[in-house]
Structure formats: C-alpha cells, structure tokens
Design brief:
By secondary structure, this protein is of the alpha/beta class. The protein contains 14 helices and 5 strands. Strand 3 and strand 4 form a beta hairpin. Helix 5 packs across helix 7 and helix 9 runs antiparallel to helix 10. This is Chromosome-partitioning protein Spo0J.
Length: 292
Amino acid sequence: MSAIRAYLKGLVEEAKRPASSTALLGELVPRPQPRRRFEEASLKALAESIRAHGVLEPLLVRPTGEGKYEIVAGERRYRAAQMAGLAEVPVVVLEVDERAAQAIALMENLQREDLNPYEETVGVLDLLALELGRGREEVASLLHRMRNEKGGKATQNVLGSPEAQKVEEVFRLLGRMSWESFVQARLPLLTLPEDLKEALEGGAIPYTAALELKKVKEEVARKALLEEAKAGLSLRELKARVRELLKREAVPKPWHHEVAERLKRLDLEALPRHKRRQVEEKLRELWALLGE
C-alpha cells in the first residue's frame, strides 16, 4: 500500500487521538489548502461554539523547522479560534513529508459536512492525481477510459491496470461513492458554465439542477432558468422546462435567418474581385427590393 493510502486509512484514527500538545496561534502557519472558501456565517457559528466549549478536535500540524507549525488539517478551527479570541489551541504534531501532508489535507477537506459537490469533485481528482502522480486532467481522462471499457465502448485493457486498481482502492477508502457514479454525476461539473459553477459553489442550487441547466446552450434562457432554480423551482419542473427549451433549440432556424447571419459576418473586401462584384450586385437588388 502506498504512503498516501496508508495515511488516508489512518487519518480518522489520527484525528481522534487526544491532543499531544497545545500551540499558540502565533506559532501556526496555514498551508495552501484545497478548501476554496470559508463561509463567514459558518465560521461565526463555530467561533461561538469554541467560546462555549473550546476546540474539541485538535488541529493536525507539522513542524516547519523555524519554531513554527504548519497546519496540515484544521484551518477552519484555527480561523474560528482567532475569531473567538483564543491564544492557543490543542494540536497533534505529525512528522510527515510534504506528499503525505498534502494527502491528509485533501482527505480532511473531503470530510467536511459543508463541502459542496464541485469542491468535492476537485478534491477527489486532486487526491487521485497525488496517488497516481498525474495531473487532474489526466486522471479525468483515465476515469472516462475506464468507464468506456466497462460499458463495452472500448477495449484498451485499462480496467486491469495498476492505475485502475489504485483508483478503485481510493474510492473504497473514501466510502462516498463508486468511481462509476463519480464519472457519471460529478465529472460533468468540471465543464459547467461560470454562472452555474458560481451558483453551485455558493450553495444556491444543487448539483442535479446544475447538470440540467448545463444542457441549455442559449445563455439568456439558461440564466433566466437559473434564477428560477435559485428561487426554488423544483427539479421536476426544471427538467420539464429544460426539455421544452431543448426542443426549441433543436428546430432549425428558417433559411433566411441563416442568410442574415452570414451577411453579418461577410467581409466583401476578402472576396475575389469577380465574386465580390456579383455579391454587391445581388445586395443592391435586395436593398432596392426591400426599399419598395
């Protein structure tokens, strides 16, 4: 078993260990974390709890060699402790290398209760990328190839590879979903239009609604539907509205609309001389006809 998977397996037990020490807040240094945002209201609620009960779960830290400790897991508790006015917090000091620290940070992030589906998708991909030694896009490509082979769409012998076995083991350790459902329901979130991604990350819509809205290519119509989804439009109603829009999008435009679109893009100067004369003559005829 790789060091990353070993740390993943032992992370829960590690976090449950009693604090081995306390550290002054000034001694702690946040590391670049996979967490994208800290909700102010949630932090305030945690700060109130800390004022009343203290920090119940120790932070996982590692020494930096400069008299400081880098926060491996628990930055949210660190920030809330600052808001609560604490001077020190309980910590568990770990002796881990950078790769293991990154794995623990990713895993801790994935255990958050308020994790939204987009953050979860990126977190799982980053964890797999760390385990496989590949980039995020390469991991997504591998997952698609695995799914195609399992569905009989390709015979690339990917499923029996060591990489595929590592993927399956990481998903078993995570215990959140299968790799197949991850490919089907979560990978499409990576290609969401920016407005849908922001709404999803902000918790304004569920990921199922985001995936439905993604089907609508016409931006104005999609934005209007997004606002209705934010206001509480049910998923059933949303799906019906999307179906109607897709039917309209599938109807070909009248041929004269296409002609008008092509005329908008027309660059007369770029045409060969003889063709430009012909086009100009036709345009003058059309202009005269419309003028009547």
